[in-house]
Each structure stands twice: as structure tokens, then as C-alpha cells.
Amino acid sequence: MPSDTPQPAFVLVRPQMGENIGAAARAMWNFGLDRMRIVAPRDGWPNPKADAMASGAGRLLDEAMLTDTLEGAVADCTYVFATTARQRGLTKPVYSPEEAMRVAAQKIAGGEKVAVLFGPERAGLENEDIALANAIVSVPVNPDFPSLNLAQCVLLTGYEWRRNTAEVTALAHELAGTDWANASEMAHLARHYEERLEEAGFFFPAAKAENMKVNLRNLWSRMPLTRADVQMLHGILRQMVRWKERGG
Predict the structure, then answer these.
(1) Which residues of 173-193 are buried (b: 16+ CB within 10 A; e: fewer)?
(2) Where are the domains of the chain?
(3) Of 113, 98, 119, 89, which is closest to residue 11 (Cα–Cα)?
(4) 3-state secondary structure of 9
């Protein structure tokens, strides 16, 4: 059974290749979408090539609604988006994928049923299909090469749905078993390097020594170092001093 998560239905209109239907199912499930509807697939249904390409998302194909007409596929929907990459000469609101999925999320949260139409691989949706939709979703592609693969368009739309309905972490750090170095550890590292550089005669001439030390401390403070990084830098310096003392 499809999940209970509120979501739009993704409607594949007259898809041509089973492989693309399977890839679309996989793309949907990547982003937690499992309401697939298929309108008049060219090569019939079920399609073993779709099953092979779905790669773990075969449940979506098994549970997909199959209809002969687009009207039947969207009969229970209160708002329908039609995806297209080219001008259609029809008077309708045109959304970016991001804004379309934001609007879809709002409508679904309000109890409405929303569908998104994706056209066949060769030429996309016909104007007769788009006339049944309430709005257009236009992908900002290269105007010299506007053709999008069916599964790519599904993936892009699914991604925008996920961004609008799930908590997405914009930036995270993998610390690999360590923690960020604290101010005390950074100060100890700075002193260690200043002491060894002082012994090596680095801070010359004397009149510039204090400013050079300030610049060095500023350099350390700009580095987002972990405790493991600090320990390694201490170890490098100790080994260099030992090597020098051995006459290296």
C-alpha cells in the first residue's frame, strides 16, 4: 500500500519506454513519493523493463494507478500542475519547480489533492493535456537544449517537493570521531609554534616580531581545526625539532 504521507500524485502521461517509467519510480522513491499514475503507456502494462530499472522501487509500479485517459488520472484532483520546458501559448500561471512544490505543499496541507503531469519522452505534454491543468511548471533549462529526460524531470520535481516538506540540513560537518578544537587548545598550539619559531629566528627583525606573532595567531583563528588536527600539528613540529637536533 502507498504510504500515509500527504503528497502529490505524479502522473506519467503516455510514457514510451519501460526503462523511463522504472527510472521515474526510482526517482520518486528517492524523495519519499509513492503515488504514481500512468496514462496509456505505449508498450503496455505491466512492463518488465520498468521493473528492472526501478531497482528497489518496484512497489510503486505494482501500486501505480493505470488509466486510459488523462481525465481519468486526475479526476479526483483539485489542482493540477503540468511540467513543460517550452512556451505553450496558453494563459496560465507559470511556476518554477521550487515555487510549484511550495504551493503544492500548502494545498495538500489544506486537504486538497494535487497532481503533477509529466509528458512522454519524445515531445512532452500536448496542449490538450496542459489545458486540463491549473498551472504550468517550467524548468529553467538551457533554451538551446530544453529537452529533459522523463526521469530527470521527475527527480528534479521530487527534490523540490522534499526541500519544501522535510527538514533539510544546508551544511553539516563529519568530524570522524573527533571534536572541534577549543580556544584553550588553539592558544596552546599558537604558543608552541611561536616558541619554536622564536628559537629558529623566524621573528626578524625584532621591530616586526610582535606584529608577525599577531598575524600568525590570526591565521590559526581562521582555521576550523579539530582536536585531531591540533594534535597532528603539534606532532609535526615536535618531529621537525627532533630531526634538527639529530643533525638532520
Answers:
(1) eeeeeeeebeeebbeebbeeb
(2) 9-165, 183-245
(3) 119
(4) strand
CB atoms within 10 A of CB 71: 10
143: cell is 533554451
DSSP class of residue 178 equals -
Q: What is the Cα–Cα distance from 112 to 205, expressed in whole angstroms?
A: 75
Q: How far is CA 47 from the centre of its chain?
A: 29
Secondary structure class of 187 (helix, strand, coil):
helix
Q: What does the block give as the cell for 162?
A: 522534499
- As averages over each run of 10 residues, the pLDDT of the chain (248 residues) reads 90 96 97 97 95 94 97 97 84 95 96 96 90 94 86 96 89 87 94 93 92 94 93 94 78
Q: In this structure, what C-alpha cell is assigned to residue 107?
A: 494545498
Distance (Å, whole) CA 23 – CA 29: 10
Instruction: Please state, in angstroms and rounded to a whole number, the distance separating the CA atoms of residues 136 and 224.
Output: 45
Contact by Cβ (8 Å): 216, 190: yes
Q: Answer yes or no: are the C-beta atoms of 110 and 79 closer than 8 Å.
A: no
- Cβ atoms of 11 and 117 closer than 8 Å: yes
**Dihedral sign for Cα atoms in the order 115, 6, 97, 148:** negative
Q: Which residues touch 190 (CB under 8 Å, ≥6 apart)?
A: 216, 217, 220
Hey, what CATH class is 9-165 in? alpha beta
